[in-house]
Amino acid sequence: MSEENSKVSRRSFLRHAGVAGAGVAALPLISNAQNAPPISESEKPYVPDGAQDVRLNINGKNYDLKIEPRVTLLDCLRENLNLTGTKKGCDHGQCGACTIHVNGKRVNSCLSLAIAHQGDAITTIEGLGTTQKPHPMQKAFMEHDAYQCGYCTSGQIMSATALLKEPCGKAAGDVREAMSGNICRCGAYKNILEAIQDVRGV
Amino acid sequence: MQSFGYKKAGSLDEAARTGADGIKFLGGGTTLIDLMKLEVERPKALVDITALPLAAIEKQKDGGVKIGATVRNSDLAHNDYIKKNYAVLSQALLAGASAQLRNKATTAGNLLQRTRCTYFRDPSRACNKRVPKSGCGAIGGHNRNLAILGTSNDCIATNPSDMNVAMMALGARVHVLGEKGERFINIDEFYLLPGNTPEKETVLQPGDLITAVSLPALPAGTVTSYLKLRDRASYEFALASSAVVASIQGGKLTRLRFAMGGIGTKPWRNPEAEKVLLNGGTIQDAVAFFLKDAKPQSENGFKVELAKRCLTHSLKNALKA
Ligand SMILES: Cc1cc2nc3c(=O)[nH]c(=O)nc-3n(C[C@H](O)[C@H](O)[C@H](O)COP(=O)(O)OP(=O)(O)OC[C@H]3O[C@@H](n4cnc5c(N)ncnc54)[C@H](O)[C@@H]3O)c2cc1C
Ligand code: SF4
Ligand code: FES
Ligand code: FES
Predict the structure, then answer these.
(1) Which of B60, B68, B177, B205 has its CA 20 to 30 A from that of B112?
(2) Nearby residues of A91 by Cβ (< 8 Å), 6 or more positions away
(3) Ligand 3 within 6 A of CB of A94
């Protein structure tokens, strides 16, 4: 973070995304150029309002937001939209806790920018099923006790439901390989595997 | 993450024109966003290229294939034509990262993924690649995962990609749109050795946009394979890997290319080692030649033997020797 905003906590910073690093405004592709006159190189340092209007479609519903490009889809879901079912484990693509579906495919939301996903159909664990009518995979996870602390579970379930539509062999080893991007600190792997194979009818 | 501008490019022309020093193209973001969070990468702006018409896998008239820059690694790995004709590429892709990451990662992004050297990823440590002339924490430090071939006194970082090893063995060509129009770069000339400028990893110039990667047609009777050795069975970078593309016609080896990953500062190929076999030499001699300049660091001496076994195994399988 730059000097200007280093005193602001990250969370409040994202909420009031009004400050930003220097040097961006001189580029023609910056969207906030509409509200601000063009700034010449010599007028730097400049603190532009980097926020842009962003419309996201999540679980079939449209959300209109004003956010900075640097807001990840994961932070946007959790911090801006209060969709906290999606979890943050590592924030670096290494654990799978943040797995969601974009246009039906599973991806790590921590390495996605919210602003890059306008026009995409985003599905989170909240959109998969309800308490009354859970997705078969959610039911199977409960029946097979496929968790302990539950922190990785929404990511596991989002991965597992995406897997149903992917080319994946029948063997346990194939499922383990396909699920290797989801780490479970509690080691519930055996029951997770059973839940998935149950839903697949294997 | 520092603040930056963002724009989704609407046309190839627009993307190529906005490309410049300090501006990065955004593919899947699995390298770039990761490193921006660590403040290792600090672009002023991102030009998102994922809406450009660069996501096709096109079979060429001569039997080769042209792979668009934004084709996702998962789509490429599961493509029927690729699986049938370039199995080594599919295998290498599926051996890398996780299903989620492969759904995001793009062909061009994978070509340009950066090293996993822990000092490079930590701005509080000395690293010549991140900050030129600042020193190298890995030499004499933690270097178990780093390179034994192509190293210099300034950098010993490994190119971590699996896909690139297959691309090297297949003899890929990189299509680039730059200031002066389109040009093609042979993958053999694409990556640079670290030397005393480890910050420069490829021959690309600031603003160059990769539009595609093309693969030549392979003659009938070509076998290809990828073998990856790592600390765990899945979701881990290679300690050593090998890609072999061998054509055998009438019982005779007519064409051979092989490359290794996990051990070189770039995806490693040595045409002279291939010639050993093409000229009737033994696998043992070819492997020894390939690794003759290996220079182990304080923690990665085991890689010399591991690489030897990895390549020997791959060549034996391909040549049924
Ligand atoms: C946890 C984890 C595990 C991983 N494991 C493996 C593994 O085992 N094996 C493996 O091979 N890889 C692995 N990876 C790396 C992964 O394969 C790469 O991050 C990915 O391929 C990068 O592609 P991308 O499209 O996401 O690139 P991006 O992050 O979008 O881009 C990477 C770089 O390329 C530039 N770029 C992108 N497209 C273009 C273009 N068209 N023209 C010019 N420049 C461009 C960007 O500006 C950036 O500098 C792993 C990654 C993570 C996070
Ligand atoms: S090996 Fe290269 S990347 Fe790693 S610390 Fe040294 S200079 Fe940096
Ligand atoms: S939080 Fe995204 S992979 Fe760990
Ligand atoms: S249930 Fe605790 S991390 Fe998986």
Answers:
(1) B60
(2) A72, A74, A98, A110, B37
(3) yes
Q: Is B140 helix (H, G, I), strand (E, B) or coil?
A: coil
pLDDT < 70 regions, chain A: 1-49
Please tell me whether the overall predicted TM-score, pTM, comes out greater than 0.80 for this model.
yes
Strand B173-178 versus strand B222-229 pairing type: unpaired
Residue B273: closest CA among B239, B303, B242: B242
From chain A, pick out residues whose CB is under 8 angstroms from the CB of B50. Answer: 116
- Using one digit for the tens of pLDDT, what is the confidence trace for B201-244? 999 999 999 999 999 999 999 999 999 999 999 999 999 999 99
Strand partners, B57: B67
**CATH number for the domain whose boundaries are B222-319:** 3.30.390.50
Q: How far apart are CA A192 and CA A179, in angstroms?
A: 9
Place of tokens 């990769």: B210
SS3 B26: strand
Distance between terminal CA atoms of chain B? 53
Ligand 3, atom nearest to B100 Cα: 3
List the structure tokens of B144: 């178990």
Residue-wise burial string across A43-73, b where 16 or more C-beta atoms lie within 10 A, e elsewhere: eeebbbbbbbebebebbeeebebebbbbbbb
Q: Which residues of chain B from 102 to 161 reach within 8 Å of chain A, CB to CB? A: 103-104
Distance B143 CA to ligand 2 centre (A): 9
Per-residue pLDDT reduced to its tens digit, B62-104: 999 999 999 999 999 999 999 999 999 999 999 999 999 999 9
DSSP state for residue A138 in the 8-state scheme: H
CA distance A158 to A105: 9
Positions of CATH 3.30.390.50 in chain B = 222-319
- The one-letter amino acid at A6: S
How far is Cα A18 from Cα A25, in angstroms, rounded to an integer?
A: 14
User: For chain A, which domains are there?
Assistant: 48-127 (3.10.20.30), 128-202 (1.10.150.120)
Q: Which of B170, B140, B151, B136 is nearest to B263 (CA)?
A: B151
- Of the partner residues A52, A68, A106, the one whose CB lies closest to the CB of residue B99: A106
The identity of residue A26, as a single letter, is: A
The rounded Å distance from CA B264 to ligand 2 centre is: 13
**What CATH class has B5-48?**
alpha beta
d(CA A76, CA A83): 9
